[in-house]
Amino acid sequence: MSTAPVKRRTDPERAQQRRNQVLEAAALCFARSGFHGASMAEISKQAGMSAGHIYNYFDSKDAIILAFVEREAEHVAGLLRDLDSRDDPLEAMLEDAPMHVAESLDPQPWHMPLEMYSEASRNPVIAAKLKEVDERAHNQLRELVRRGREQRQLPVDDTLLDGRLNTLVTFFHGLPVRGIQRPDMNREALVEGFRCAMRALLLS
């Protein structure tokens, strides 16, 4: 009869909860100290677990950043599924502009665009992952916009669509930076400005 110790099964739900706990702690530490300034020891302390225990869930800070990238990708995928379920995806994008502006200016703990993009500028692994998830989302969004423009008998060649969508995404990516520079911006006026730009990009 074998006397080898029985390995305790990992509860997937419990493990995911612990991963989320680490990510929430990491978001606070990165916001406070920056990606390079925050240590794994600091993150583990913020998460309320031992320094060694945290490595059961993430083997490095790079792995934590990559997990944030995956979270962002899941969030975007959900938004695209919602758009796909609506009769007119272009009008839906205009209607949803206030929500997307608010998300960019008031990011949730899991949403750290500045930290992700800053680290990607130095780290080719993170840059490659961001490029991968962006390419996937861009292609899905392009097909949704194509459908909406075809309904209106507007041009739908890939070069035009890519140019319009890259411009639109650039606007939204710049919002967190502008929010730091001008935290007192009039949100209603900003949303109206976005809607004007979106109408020109999507509906002309």
Automatic annotation (TrEMBL):
Residues 39-58 bind DNA. It comes from Pseudoduganella danionis. PANTHER family: HTH-TYPE TRANSCRIPTIONAL REGULATOR BETI (PTHR30055:SF234), HTH-TYPE TRANSCRIPTIONAL REGULATOR RUTR (PTHR30055). This is TetR family transcriptional regulator. It holds the Pfam family TetR_C_6. The keyword Transcription applies. PROSITE patterns: HTH_TETR_2. InterPro entries: BetI_C, Homeodomain-like_sf, HTH-type_TetR-like_transc_reg, HTH_TetR, Tet_transcr_reg_TetR-rel_C_sf. Signal peptide: none annotated. Keywords: DNA-binding, Repressor, Transcription, Transcription regulation. Residues 16-76 form the HTH tetR-type domain. Coiled coil: none annotated.
